[in-house]
Amino acid sequence: MYSLKSQDLCFLAMAMASPSSLPHSLHSSPSTSSANYVLLSKPPSPKRLRFGSANPRHTKSFALRAAADEVSFVEPPPPPPPSSGSKPAPNPELLASLKLKLLSAVSGLNRGLAALREDLQKADAAAKEIEAAGGPVDLSADLDKLQGRWKLIYSSAFSSRTLGGSRPGPPTGRLLPITLGQVFQRIDIFSKDFDNIVELELGVPWPLPPVDATATLAHKFELIGSARVKIVFEKTTVKTTGTLSQLPPLELPQLPEGLRPPSNRGSGEFDVTYLDADTRITRGDRDELRVFVIS
């Protein structure tokens, strides 16, 4: 296994410790009473015995030099510097702390419906800290992280007190008794389906109980650049739940093509500014900040 031969070391040890232990063939004259010993005119060339480690983290090695009476340590070459284009890895402990700070900022705001101006500023500042620590998002490499069902925990647009946020939508309040439940986004990266799912409670005249329903706004999505997502509205389906769950779903018809507005209000674009396995932050084309957690 090793290139160093044991007789090389033994030869030197015998010569230095006891000349009489040298082989008889190395004596200058067998008939002479005085023992004169002659070493080889050319000592063996130095040989090196290296010891390494299978663990790449333990890279220091040393070499044993024969015929030189020394042990020398050989330092490994320094690791190559990181390339200028590589993205530094985010600090996981810092990100965990910043995510907790953001969750604390938006908790108790009823997904933004109860947010005041100072609440909006606090949530926006906390989101910007995470975005800076996480670095740019590249969906071309991390598209699989979009897959799944995401729960909306905050939208800055809900502070407008409408269910449409910055877009036109029904108001909340006594004039139209609609209670907003949970809001989800269901994303399928294979079929390119992008569904906004909204749970609603619809008030009806007394003594009838309120009606629970789920509205699903179906879209298709595509990537624009490295972090922007474009969604195109397709249809809306309303399904009653609870005591009226046996009713079939109602698909709201689209207007004829000639009567549709020039801009599809169900479509839009947004930037994914932070994304990991359980948290997603987006900023919409109407300056809307949204925070999602995996459901």
Question: In brief, what are we looking at here?
Answer:
The protein is an alpha+beta fold and 295 residues long. It contains 4 helices and 12 strands, in the order H-E-E-E-H-H-H-E-E-E-E-E-E-E-E-E. A hairpin with an 8-residue loop joins strand 8 and strand 9 (250-252).
How would you characterize the overall build of this protein?
- The protein is α+β, with helices and mostly antiparallel strands and 295 residues long.
- The chain is 17% helix and 32% strand.
- It contains four helices and twelve strands, in the order H-E-E-E-H-H-H-E-E-E-E-E-E-E-E-E.
- It has helices spanning 6-17, 92-106, 117-134, 139-142, and strands at residues 48-51, 61-65, 70-74, 148-155, 178-188, 193-202, 211-224, 228-241, 250-252, 268-275, 279-284, 289-294.
- It has an eight-stranded antiparallel barrel with strand order 4-5-6-7-8-10-11-12.
- A hairpin with a 3-residue loop joins strand 10 (268-275) and strand 11.
- Helix 2 (92-106) packs antiparallel against helix 3 (117-134).
- The longest helix is centred in the middle third of the chain and has 18 residues, at 117-134.
- It is globular, with a radius of gyration of 38 Å.
- Residues 1-5, 24-40, 57-69 and 163-169 have low confidence and may be disordered.
